[in-house]
């Protein structure tokens, strides 16, 4: 009997009523665990109480590098009547007027250590809190590592997996190049079967690195992002920033294929005693948003954006 293809394996496991035994990937399977098992093992996210203040206790305007409180400055892009959704990052959500249009394709661009993965986890966490289903596709970390990272942030993803509301699937890098087409073709059907409304892919840079030819890279990434659009979910990609340019992705492609771009970067002015982190919304189609650069921190609870503060 012939071996099933990667696409057949995903469809069969998505429709399975009982979870399968964990696969190690040594038999040539695409994922360390099949899709059905991933659905059964997802984790729940816990919610931290909201703070009235936009800043953590013990931080003043001066010692966090704020220059004062100012009204948010929104751009003049036309608003729309599309259904909206929040990202789940409070200060950042308040920089967006009305929320992200549902089924948008988003990208968070940043260098190492700026919190791109945390951004994705927090985005899924918020949806799961609202009763949504979600999918996390890991290209650089194992499924176990994703769960552990979420747990460190207070997001109980293991409980959501157990409830069948979160799928965490990790692609085998060895299989990725040969199986990408199958994944791309099957993804809309899989998302429909799982009834997911949010999806994170961490990170698209690894997909881009598979292609040496720029034209092939552009065409393949275009087709892949189109499959995410066809899946009908609000999707977030993470991407490494280009060397020497924090406002561009590594290969300068994904920001042109997405509906919203968030830039996470280090700010190192000479007069600062320490490096700051700052976030900027480069674009959001069909939504008004602030054009200002705002400071943020990576805390034990995730990303905290200080929307009312300005960098010196």
Automatic annotation (TrEMBL):
Record-level Gene Ontology MF annotations: ATP binding
Domain KaiC residue range list: 83-312
Keywords (A to Z) from UniProt: ATP-binding, Nucleotide-binding
Family matches, as SUPFAM superfamilies: P-loop containing nucleoside triphosphate hydrolases
Chain intervals with Polar residues compositional bias: 14-27
Region (Disordered), start-end ranges: 1-81
InterPro entries (alphabetical): Circ_KaiC_arc, KaiC-like_dom, KaiC_dom, P-loop_NTPase
Domain of life: Archaea
Compositional bias per record (Acidic residues), positions renumbered to this chain: 70-80
CDD domains in alphabetical order: KaiC-like
Gene3D superfamilies hit by this protein: P-loop containing nucleotide triphosphate hydrolases (3.40.50.300)
PROSITE patterns associated with the record: KAIC
PANTHER family (UniProt xref): UPF0273 PROTEIN TM_0370
Entry-linked NCBIfam families: KaiC_arch_3
Name of the protein: KaiC domain-containing protein
Source species of the chain: Natrarchaeobius chitinivorans
């Amino acid at each position: 009997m012939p071996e099933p293809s990667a696409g057949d394996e995903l469809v069969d496991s998505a429709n399975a009523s009982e979870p399968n035994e964990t696969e190690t990937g040594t038999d040539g399977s695409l994922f360390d665990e099949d899709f059905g098992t991933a659905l059964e093992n997802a984790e729940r996210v816990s919610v931290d109480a909201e703070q009235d203040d936009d800043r953590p206790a013990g931080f003043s305007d001066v010692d966090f590098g704020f220059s004062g409180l100012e009204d948010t400055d929104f751009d003049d892009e036309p608003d729309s009547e599309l259904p909206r959704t929040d990202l789940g990052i409070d200060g950042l959500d308040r920089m967006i007027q009305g929320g992200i249009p549902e089924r948008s394709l988003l990208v968070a661009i940043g260098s190492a250590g700026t919190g791109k993965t945390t951004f994705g986890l927090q985005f899924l966490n918020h949806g799961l809190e609202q009763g949504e289903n979600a999918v996390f596709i890991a290209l650089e970390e194992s499924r176990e590592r994703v769960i552990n990272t979420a747990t460190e942030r207070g997001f109980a993803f293991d409980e959501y997996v157990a409830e069948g509301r979160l799928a965490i699937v990790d692609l085998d890098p060895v299989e990725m190049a040969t199986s990408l087409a199958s994944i791309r073709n099957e993804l809309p059907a899989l998302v429909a079967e799982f009834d997911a409304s949010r999806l994170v892919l961490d990170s698209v840079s690894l997909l881009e690195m598979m292609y040496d030819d720029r034209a092939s890279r552009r065409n393949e990434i275009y087709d892949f992002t189109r499959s995410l659009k066809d899946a009908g979910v609000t999707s977030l990609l993470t991407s490494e920033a280009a060397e020497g340019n924090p406002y561009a992705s590594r290969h300068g492609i994904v920001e042109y294929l997405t509906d919203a771009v968030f830039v996470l970067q280090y700010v190192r002015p000479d007069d600062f005693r320490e490096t700051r982190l700052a976030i900027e919304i480069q674009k959001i189609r069909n939504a008004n948003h602030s054009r200002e650069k705002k400071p943020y921190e990576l805390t034990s609870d995730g990303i905290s954006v200080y929307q009312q503060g300005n960098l010196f």
